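Newbie here. two chains, one complex. Structure please?
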Amino acid sequence: MSKLIQKTSLVPRIIACLDVANGRVVKGTNFKQLKDMGDPIEMGLQYQHQGADELVFLDIKASVDKQDSALLLVNKVAKTLSIPFTVGGGLKILEDVDKFFNAGADKVTLNTAAVLNPNLIDQIANKYGSQSLIVAVDVNLEASGELVLYTHGGSKRVEKNYASWMNEVIQRGAGEIMINAMHKDGTGSGFDLDLLSNQDYSVPIIASGGANQPVDFLDAINAGADAVLAAGIFHRKEYTVEQIKDYLIKNKIKMRTQSC
Amino acid sequence: MRIGIINLNSGNLLSIVSAFSKTGNEVVVLDKPDSNFDVLVMPGQGRFGFVADQLNKNNWREFILDWIAQDKLFIGICVGMQLLFESSQEDTGAKGLAIFTGEIEKLDFPKTPMVGWAQLNSVDENSNGNFVYFVNSFGVRNSEFCQATVNYGNDFCAIVQKDNVYGFQFHPEKSGDYGLQLINETLQGVAACQN
C-alpha cells in the first residue's frame, strides 16, 4: 500500500447522497428509471440524526433540464441542517457556483462542467478555496476492460484518459475527488476497490457507487477511501447510517459517534 | 439574550446565524459596531490577512478590543479564532487582535486544508471525546489557554478560552448536535452535558 501513514485525528466519513429531481429525492439504477424516495429536507434531517457525517444533494436532472429551483432547496437545507453539505447538478459557470454558495452551500461538486470547462475548477478553488470543491468523476469499466469517463449523468462518453484526468483535477485545485464507478452504481455489488487501492492521491477520495452491505464500506475504507458515499442502501432503509458505523467501529475503523 | 454576528465579508453567515438562532436567542448580523448586544460572534473564512484587513474597517478592531476589555462574552470561529492571536504565517504582515500571545502556523500534513471530523482531546470531561468539523490549513500549536487539541501531523488547539473570550478553530455550526450543544453551553457560560 502506498497510502501515507501520518498522524491525524480525522476519521473516515460516511456521506449520504440525495439525488434530487423536481424537488424530490429519487433513486435509479445506472442513472435511469427514477423512483421517488421522499422529501429532501426530511430525509436529510433523518440522516443527520442517524449520524451521517456529510450530505450531498445532487440535482441530477439539472444539467439536462436547466432547473433553478435547487437554490431554494439549498437555502432551506442550510438553515435546517447542522452538518456540512455539498450541492451539485447543472453548475456551468462561476456565476452558477456563486449562487449556490450565497444560498448557503458548504461545498459544490462538479462533474460535466469540470470536463467541458476545466478552468472552472481553478476559478472555484481560487475564489472559495480547494476545501469548497469536490470534483466527481464518472468512470465506467467497459466490456473491453478499458476505464472510460462519462458526463451528463452517465450518458455521454468522453475521450479523456481517466488517470491523467484525475491528476489534472487535483492540479487545478479540487479539494476532494468523488470516484463514481458507474459499472457498480445501483448494482449492489460493492465499490470498485481497484479504483481505490494502490493510489496515492494528494486529496481525499470519496468512494461512490455500489454499496450493498456494511462490508462494502469496510472494504472501501481499507482500500484507501477517505469517505464513502451511498444512497440507495440508506433510502431503501436496508441499513441506517448508524448501523453502518457500528459495523465499522466493530471492525476497528474509527468513526464519528454522537455521544455526549 | 441578543447575539451579534460580526460581518467581515468573509464567507456566508447563514449557517452561523441559523445555528445561533436555534438557541432561541435573537441573532443579528452586524455590518458596523453596535454595543446593544450581550454576545459578539466573529466568524471568519479565507485568508488571515484579508479578514485582519476587514477588522480595520468601521473601527471593528478598537470596538472588539474594548468589548473584550469589558469582559463581555466574545466568540471567535475558525479564522475568527485565529485573529484573537498576534499574527499568522499565512500573511506575516497582518496583525491579529493579540488577546492571546502566539503565531498561527501552517499545519504540517501532506493534505491541506484539513477537512473533516476530528475528536477533541481535552482535560475537560464535557468536551473531551466529542467530534467536531474542521476546515483549516493553519492552526495554533501552543497556547497556555488551549482547552482542547486535535492532531493533523502535529497537535494544534481546537478550543482556546480565557475568561469570557472563546475561540473555536472548528465549525460548531457544522458540528451536528454536539456543535449546537457547545454553542448553548458557551452562551450560558456553563458546561453541562445533557445526555
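Moderator note: The domain at 2-188 of chain B is CATH 3.40.50.880 (Rossmann fold). Residues 191-195 of chain B have pLDDT under 50 and may be disordered. Thread marked as resolved.
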